[in-house]
Write a structure and sequence with these properties.
This protein has about 500 residues and is an alpha/beta fold. The protein has 16 helices and 17 strands. The chain has helices spanning about 15-25, 35-45, 65-75, 90-95, 110-150, 170-175, 180-185, 185-190, 195-205, 255-300, 310-335, 345-355, 380-395, 440, 465-475, 500-510; strands at about 5-10, 35, 50-55, 80-85, 100-105, 155, 165, 215-220, 225-240, 245-255, 340-345, 360-370, 375, 400-410, 425-430, 480-485, 490-500.
Amino acid sequence: MDKKKIMLVEDEAVTSLDLESNMIKLGYEVPAVVTSGEDAVRKAAELHPDLILMDIALAGPMNGIEAADEIRKSNAIPIVFLTAHADIKTVNRAKITEPFGYLSKPCNFATIKSTIEVALYKGEVDAQRRKAEKALKEAEEKYRTVANFTHDWEFWIGPDNRILYISPSCERITGHSAAAFEKDPSLMRRIVHPDDIAVFDWHCKGIKGTKEEGELEFRIIHTDGSIRWIAHVCRPVYDDQGQFIGTRGSNRDDTRRRKLEEELYKARNFVSLCIVAGGIAHDFNNLLQNLVGNIDMAMIFTPESSKAYPFLKDAESAYRAAIKLTKQFNAISTGNISAIDTINPTDVIRDAVSFALSGSNIKAVYDLSENLLNVDVDINQLRQAIGNITRNAREAMTSGGRLLVSAANEMLEEQEVPGLAPGKYIKISIRDQGRGIAPDILLKIFEPYFSTKERGPQKGMGLGLTVSDSIIRKHNGAITVETEIGKGSTFHIYLPAVVSAVAEAASKSV
């Protein structure tokens, strides 16, 4: 077993020799005996002894307390002070250096042994503690380094719900900084979408009573007002005694995946719909042609004064409505756009909205960019698509109000709007003040015959949004929807913008 090394710092020769002799008798190694504070600091850094016996009242510029303080700053070596005058004032000054013990001169053999053994033991314990703290700090730094650069929003929450750590990604996902969450632990719950508060609270309460990993999908409201889907996973953490010490979790912005799934769902339905609608339109049209021929012949040979004549007129009206329905099926099924024109869509937007709102108590408020880019469209089809969405908004605003209609140029990045290539678009937004669309039916609103309204000749057949979606898709565009229960819905129409070669060159040269 290696001998413990004890360095002596004593400027009285007799005391120094006596102490050195006793150290050797007790089985310790004495690697150096120094007589000044400056030498003590230098030798401690050079030899790294297991313990230092330090005289407090050293002669020279640096006394024992000052030397111990310097050693403590750079070397974690236990120090036991030697003093001939153990007065309170001196002891209080010495406490600043956090010594491991005191020996009063002259020192007896037994006291030296017990004091040194206790100091060495405390030094070993202290060294182990510092080693553990260093390892923990390094582990925390590694976790923090990884977490700080992860794309997800990582966090640690203590048992008192105080946030111990939160990664910078929280700001990208929520709009709120890490400091804001640390300052206000209740912020997390406050940004949860009102419709998801109940399930969020249930999850938070339940996770504390289990040792299992928990998962949850919920929505939050970003500071910019947009709604984000969060894929949340967390696990409660327990110490060696089984005490709950907090929760570690991760939140991922799942909005894009959700939108892609929705777009895939719509696309699959759209393909099937086109096939079915085309077949129905063809067969239905053949039946109608035969029916109208017979109705026309019957009306020719039936006097208007006949009791049967009004019934024939009703049948003719029903036929006209059926023709319109067939045209809607054709609009959905056909892959062709009959007439393409390059236009600035401002006038078409105003005309379509104005016509759809005529006779209602709803006022359209326009915010149309003066620099709106051109688009290649079938004017009649675009007018129909906008009109259908406007009529849908009109029916949602039963008490009247304001319909906000805006249009602006938009530069889309890759996958910013699912299904659309990156590039320049115009974005037409129609925002109503209706009751909003429930999340469980949001994906169904573009399906044919889906409607929350009564159906009938005057109430609509539930095909308006389906037709609008079909028309915009055929123009290589897309329709997206934002909605909030009790506040209304916003339909966004994206159409590829037409940029002339001259304008494109000019924009690149700026």
